[in-house]
Amino acid sequence: MKLFGIEFAPLWIPAERRFQTFAVFQWTMCFLFLGFFCLGISLYILLCTSYYYIILAYLAWYIYDHKTPARGGRRSDWARNWKIWHYFRDYFPISLVKTAELDPKKNYIFGYHPHGIMSAGAFCNFATEATGFSKIFAGIRPYLSILSGQFVFPFHRDYFMCSGMVEVSKDSMNYVLSGAKGTGNAFVVVVGGAVEALEARPDNYTLTIKSRKGFVKMALKHGASLVPVFSFGENELFTQMSNPRGSKLKAIQIRLTKMLGFSPPIFHGRGIFNYTFGLIPYRKPIHTVVGKPIDVEKTPEPTSEQIEALHNRYLNELRELFEQHKTKYGVKEMKHLVIE
């Protein structure tokens, strides 16, 4: 039913779809607001109630535990297998596609593309077991890396670590790939980062990766195999306000990204009870295709030439992965990756 240009959801919808919408709604609210909510509640309890000792006790734990996000986190297989993540998967739906075997005796760096607005595909595939990562890639443990700032917020950090997420930092990558966690580890990096989120709009395949070579250098230092990953559909989940290069809006967004560490895209999806406007992603399928590994020889002190050569090889493998699978997952033949 449409009213004033807004398409409302029917009153009678199967319970399964309601559960799916709720699962994605709670995830979206957690992504956008949970950190600040936890911080606000903690300050209120500390300053305005007689239960301040709870926060003081947590603060002592926080100080003791503050390095854990850079030391492999604290995953919980129970949390990764919650039923709510199955509803989350089925909302879009999201699928994980394997193109090659991964040897559990090696360590890996997964380069995830594109960032999208909220990286829903990365979360579902690598921070939960909803798509069966551990069965599809037996013996491989994924560590989805996110902004270090996400682990600053009280309680919020512990919730995120349950899924196996870790901070995206040099120390964190060193720890996972150095052998401290054994072998069979896959450190997942959303390579384009916050800046790439500003390019996330339907039918756009612009990747911010040309100057991003830190993950390649780390692969060489640890001899970790590089694996390109492309999520078809990630950019289709939201509509973003036009911000072409050279526009005043784009300049402000990039400046804020450098200041804040995260990007401020102006976007909308759908709502809980309407299909026209809101913060929930649209129901669009996501197919996350994991490419074949690029074996890397361990080089403790890689030269700039070695880094450049491996980076170029990675880009070529990523382009090949995209071209090989694009038409299968709804991308027009004339569309190609734009590397910036």
Look at the helices and sheets and give the structural class.
Answer: alpha/beta
Low-pLDDT sequence parts? none
Tell me the strand percentage band: 5-15%
Helical segment count:
12
How many whole angstroms does the radius of gyration measure? 20 Å
- Binned, the helix content reads 25-40%
The largest sheet, given as strand count, sense and whether it forms a barrel, is: 7 strands, mixed
Strand order of the largest sheet: 3-12-9-4-7-5-6
Question: Which features would summarize this protein structure in a list?
Answer:
340 residues; alpha/beta; 15% strand
Structural commentary:
- The protein has a single domain (about 1-340), classed as 3-Layer(aba) Sandwich (Glycerol-3-phosphate (1)-acyltransferase).
- The protein is about 40% helix and about 15% strand.
- The chain has helices spanning about 15-50, 50-65, 75-80, 85-90, 120-125, 135, 155-160, 170-175, 195, 215-220, 250-260, 305-325; strands spanning about 1-5, 5, 95-100, 110-115, 140-145, 165, 185-190, 205, 225-230, 240, 265-270, 285-290, 340.
- Helix 1 (about 15-50) packs across helix 4 (about 85-90).
- The radius of gyration is 20 Å and the shape is globular.
- The N and C termini lie far apart (about 40 Å).
- The model has no long low-confidence stretch (mean pLDDT about 95).
